[in-house]
Amino acid sequence: MAIYPGLNMEFIRCEDKPFEEGVRRAAGLGYRFVEPLVHNGRELLSEAGYFHSFSMDNDPLEMKDILAKYGVEPSGLSAHCPLMRPEISVPYLEKAIRWAAAIGCKVVNSDEGIRPEWLDDEECFQVMRYTLKKTLRIAERYGVYIAIEPHQSISQKTEGLLRIATLVPSDYLRVNYDTGNAFLAGEDPYAGLRAVLPLLVHVHAKDISVPQAHLEKGKVTGTPVGCACGKGVIDWRHVCAILTEAGWRGVLSVECGTPLQAADSLTHLNAVLKGPANAN
After folding, report:
1. Could you give phi then psi for residue 74, rounded to 5 degrees?
2. Cβ pair 201, 145 in contact under 8 A
3. Distance between CA atoms of residues 175 and 199, nearest Å
4. How many structural domains compose the chain?
5. Is the alpha carbon torsion for 139, 145, 150, 151 positive or negative?
């Protein structure tokens, strides 16, 4: 298969477990790829072993050793930051890019963040262009993609997502498409996926339960995690058919809330990916 299931580390947050335990569990379920979350500085929960986020003040090779210990690879680094706050996002993204390169990861996933109320419409894009221009100098040097995800007020619509992802002419500015966020924002996730294919480098395989769809569709710009793939409103055969027809190769990083959902997602996605349309 040219497309592989992966697992965002959010699946273990419900159990208050540290990073290494999350990696161990993901590997035990059968995942070959994981998507770690990183942060700056120190915070109580991860320091005490109750949260899976990994501090970038640690040695990146420590994370690389943990991944190697359990035989998994990083599909992307979850490094979300406010692109419209360059005083925050520039040093954070530059550090995340160097960190990703050190662990052998080719993608840093982010979104534009919450829009500051003091910026007008055009200023938002001017500031994001500055942030991306600055950080892409590092990304290009290290060979790491910055992938923009549909998640906030601008990127929730495919048009806004594509505008952000083309603010700077660089081969290393790409898209991490989140099917669940797009659906909840009122977009057609399949049409959106087709629209971003030329820039697509990573996919968040997020399904949305029927109750959540009824409650929140068109009212929110995204959600932290979804339900198990195959248990919600997203048609994964359709998603995989679009990707396969385009010749796309990469990882579907499952974003769900529990280990059971992670197990169910892997079973479903493996069945879909091993179907006739997705065979080598």
Report:
1. -85, 125
2. yes
3. 6
4. 1
5. negative
Which stretches within the chain are classed as H helix? 19-29, 44-47, 60-69, 86-103, 121-142, 158-164, 179-184, 189-196, 210-216, 236-245, 259-273
Distance CA 154, CA 183 (A): 15
**Residue 275 confidence (pLDDT):** 81
Expressed as residue numbers, the domain containing 137 is 3-278
Q: How far is Cα 23 from Cα 266, in angstroms, rounded to an integer?
A: 15
**pTM, two decimal places:** 0.95
CA separation for the pair 243, 51 (Å, rounded): 33
CATH number, residue 258: 3.20.20.150
At 95, the pLDDT band (50, 70, 90 cuts) reads very high
* Cβ atoms 193, 177 nearer than 8 A: yes
pLDDT of 280 reads 39
Q: Is the pLDDT of residue 277 over 70?
A: no
Q: Is 253 helix (H, G, I), strand (E, B) or coil?
A: strand
